[in-house]
Design a protein that fits this description.
The protein is mainly alpha-helical. It has 21 helices and no strands. 48% of the residues are buried.
Length: 490
């Protein structure tokens, strides 16, 4: 496992852009809490603080797909620099107007949230740009001739052929592809799993950091830290041009990511999953309180993050042979089973184990969904599609958090813990029932390799030209059909 992730970070430029994106998205879980801590301390009203924090998060959720579209059309550098400047101005205004009217605070909050740079989405599109799109398989016989194959994946596009002014900074694509072929463990699954683990680190460290700064130094210190990290990380990522995906602004590159077959299903599943997570946060606090240990609610939620980190590291270190859609459906099904023990836990020890088990499925679902989108979406809609899924997740978590209080009071903490499993079951049901609407984005690597081998057979041996010709005329059609069938929906 260590060797796998070490190979990942040896990809040229990967360690630098991943580190910059991590710094830029560390404030994601800090921003809402920092707003609550500052506004409540200055205005004396938790109600006002909650409203401002809510509209700040809502502003990001509503504008994330539009920002992703701008990135696809104009490139990451321009959007990152502009959004970082606007976000910084909005955050400074918010910090300066803590005693102003609620409407002014909400306006500053909307601007701050709507302009927050989505470095988490952009780092994933960078990984998709610098890494191959095909899912690798275990080492086997040599592949077919490298001659051009008529069978191509949807995302087999000339990503490395842009002729921008900074092309001299880019490594030679042939040499880079050769290094990738020599390191079969470096895959999108590995990269997305690594970023999922970093996401969990931010959600563990971010709230602790902003709370310590706002309570021990100054109420403004938490949001000031958010400002420095967000603007600094976005700027550092923007300046790394060598790994930036080229913008695609051709008249042929139009449309919306949500109109791509399968994308509405993926976003609906993301919304349902995070709806359960939104309920889970408050339900865990209430359940721990009912068991006489309210202080353990934090460690319990941390166990969910620890489980997600472990699941993500394991998932990314594997070489998966199944098609991305199949892996996505399997992960969704496993999550339903993994969440059931939460409602059956009689005490705190069992609840700790149940939270750890539930967390094991979180990162694999996110990773498999991102890989599926990467295969499904054309290059000029990739950032927009990933941002749309992120927005659906944010909205799901917001709705779940909004409903959680009513649900816990109506059902009780123990019964409320059954709702995350119910939401996961709904997500799984949507995915299974609508899986045929997801166009087959790619066959698994075995099927592609087999089809390539059949469509581009090696020259026949001397003396067997006629027999070999008959074999070529009768064989490839059947085998190619079986290869294509491997990518069909379940």
């Amino acid at each position: 496992m260590i060797r796998t992730y070490r190979s990942l970070l040896q990809v040229p430029g990967a360690a630098r852009f991943s580190a910059a994106a991590f710094v830029g998205r560390l404030p994601v879980p800090m921003l809402g809490l920092g707003v609550v801590l500052l506004v409540s301390a200055r205005s004396g009203s938790y109600g006002t603080a909650g409203v401002v924090a809510a509209v700040t998060m809502l502003g990001y959720a509503l504008t994330a797909p539009l920002a992703g579209r701008f990135v696809d059309r104009f490139g990451q550098r321009r959007v990152l620099l502009v959004s970082a400047a606007v976000h910084g101005a909005g955050l400074v205004t918010l910090m300066s107007a803590t005693t102003a009217t609620v409407w002014l605070l909400c306006l500053a909050g909307i601007v701050t949230g709507a302009s927050r740079p989505s470095t988490g989405t952009m780092v994933r599109t960078r990984w998709a740009y610098v890494l191959p799109t095909a899912t690798p398989v275990a080492p086997g016989p040599p592949a077919a001739s490298p001659a051009p194959s008529p069978v191509r994946e949807p995302n087999s596009h000339p990503r490395h052929d842009d002729n921008r002014a900074d092309s001299g900074e880019r490594a030679d694509s042939g040499e880079r592809n050769a290094r990738r072929a020599a390191s079969p463990a470096v895959t999108l699954e590995t990269a997305f799993s690594f970023e999922a683990v970093l996401d969990e680190v931010t959600f563990i460290a971010g709230p602790v950091l902003v709370t310590a700064l706002a309570t021990r130094l100054s109420p403004w210190a938490g949001l000031l830290c958010c400002l420095v990290l967000t603007v600094g990380g976005a700027t550092a990522l923007a300046l790394q041009r060598a790994t930036e995906p080229p913008p695609l602004r051709s008249h042929e590159h139009r449309g919306s990511a949500l109109t791509v077959p399968g994308m509405p299903v993926i976003t609906a599943v993301a919304f349902s999953n995070l709806l359960g997570v939104g309920v889970l946060d408050l339900a865990i606090v209430a359940r721990a309180d009912s068991l006489g240990s309210r202080a353990l609610s934090g460690p319990l939620l941390a166990m969910l993050a620890v489980g997600s980190m472990a699941g993500g590291l394991w998932y990314g270190s594997r070489a998966w042979r199944a098609a991305p859609r199949v892996l996505w459906l399997r992960c969704l099904g496993v999550q339903v089973v993994g969440l059931v023990p939460l409602a059956l836990s009689p005490g705190l020890p069992a609840l700790v184990v149940a939270m750890l088990v539930a967390g094991l499925t979180v990162a694999p679902i996110g990773v498999s969904g991102l890989v599926l989108m990467e295969r499904l979406l054309p290059p000029h809609l990739l950032t927009e599609g990933m941002a749309a899924e992120t927005a659906a997740m944010a909205l799901g978590a917001a709705v779940g958090g909004w409903l959680s209080g009513t649900v816990v009071e109506a059902l009780g903490p123990a019964r409320a813990l059954a709702l995350p499993a119910a939401a996961a079951a709904l997500a799984f049901l949507i995915a299974v029932c609508c899986s045929r609407s997801i166009a087959s984005p790619t066959a698994d690597a075995d099927a592609v390799a087999a089809t390539v081998a059949e469509e581009c057979p090696p020259p026949p041996p001397p003396g067997r030209g006629k027999e070999s010709g008959r074999e070529q005329a009768s064989g490839p059609g059947k085998e190619s059909g079986r290869g294509r069938e491997s990518g069909q929906p379940l």
